[in-house]
Please model this.
Amino acid sequence: MNKLNAIIMVLLLGAGVMAGAETVVIKDAKVHSFGALGTMPEATIVIVDGEITEIGRQITVPDGATVIDGAGKVVTPGVFDTASSLGLAEVGAVDATVDNEQTMGYGPAFRVVDGFNPRSVAITVNRIEGVTRALLVPQPDREGHVLAGTASVVNFGSTAAFVEREQAAVVAMLGEAGARMSGG
Model:
């Protein structure tokens, strides 16, 4: 097994432990908060039911918690992909696998979440790279509808409920592209 496969396996196993445990503690990791806490060397993170409850240096590990040794590891906040098609297109060159574009002229009634595949290989790869949430954005159709449809927010860290918000926004093509599509 090469080094990359070993790293991927460790990350996937760690994600599985975190998904199934109620309380998880990551000890002695270098934490980049990108906020007021800044960078904390050798910090401890307590996660209860999937939510971070404590971050700091002198934190008591709760009884029954699953402890992950973070020594020599770096922890950063998850990345939010703000214009994603993850889980909507498997092979871009094969139209039958692309579900981010309406084909029946639904306009704003097109719900991109209906074509979402939470088991997409692209999601697994992006989770490893740190993408934890995404705004799934419909693409405008070829018929010239300015309103592409409804965008959705999904959470790649929760296998129980991937979809956080089915109708997060209505996507519109504005500017020159929208004008061309609507004949202007």
